[in-house]
Amino acid sequence: MTLLNFPVTFSDVLPPEEFKALHEELMTGWTLGNESNQGDSRFWSFPDEEKSRLSFFSAASRIKLKMMKVLRHDLRLFKIHVNGQTSGQNSFFHADSSFPQTYTFVLFMSPRWSTNWGGEFCLFDPIAQDYKFVAYRPNWGTFFPANWDHRGASPNNSTSDMRISVAFSYCHPAIIKEVEGEGRGLYAKFLR
To answer: N or C terminus of the chain: which is more exposed, having fewer CB within 10 Å?
Structure first.
C-alpha cells in the first residue's frame, strides 16, 4: 500500500445546490460555548439534534465516497462536529479521535470568504514532523487521520463574518464498535 500524503484536499466538495442547502441549515441555532478541548477558548457551537437533518447525512454520504476513492476501503461515519469562529476565537491543536484507522474530513462552509481574512486549517504531520496548511475556501474540504493534531485558525479582524466548518469523522468498518463512544452512535448507525 502506498502511504498517502495528508492532508488530502478537494475543491467543489458538494454540488452548489447541496452546499447551499447545508449552509441554510447552519444559519440559525448557534450558541457560544463550544470547545475542542477542555480549557480552550469558547467559540460558536451548533446543537446536536440539528445535525440529524438530511442535508448533513447527504453531505456525509457524498464525502464518504470521495474519501473511499482515495483510501480504497470502506468507511463508517461515527461523528459530525459543527464549528463556528469569529475574529479572536482561537482554537488549539487537538485530535478528533484516539484511534488509528479513523479520518476526519473538514468541510469549509462559509459561502463568501477572502483568504485575506485568515481562517486557514493547520495539521501537524507526525510522520514528516512538519505543519501543513490549507487555505479556507468556500466548499473546499480536506481530510486526514483523525488522531493527528490539527486546528482551524479564527478569522482575523478584517472581517466580522463567521468561519464555519463541518467535520465528518469516519473509521474503518472493523473498528466501528470501538469508536462509537467517541461519536454519538446515531451517525454510526446511519451509514452502516
So the answer is: N
Q: How far apart are CA 110 and CA 15, in angstroms?
A: 15
Q: How many Cβ atoms are within 10 Å of 114's Cβ, its own excluded?
A: 13
What is the spatial distance between Cα 44 and Cα 53, in angstroms, rounded to a whole number?
19
Q: How many alpha carbons fall within 13 Å on the CB side of residue 13?
A: 30
- Residue 48 CB neighbour total at 10 angstroms: 12
Q: Which segments in the chain show pLDDT lower than 70?
A: 1-2, 33-52, 183-192
The grid cell for 93 is 491543536
Domains, the chain? 17-26+43-190 (2.60.120.620)
Query: By C-alpha distance, which of 13, 23, 16, 9 is closest to 162?
Result: 23
pTM of the full structure: 0.87
Dihedral of the alpha carbons of 22, 27, 31, 35, in degrees to the nearest 10: 40
Q: Give SS3 for 124.
A: strand
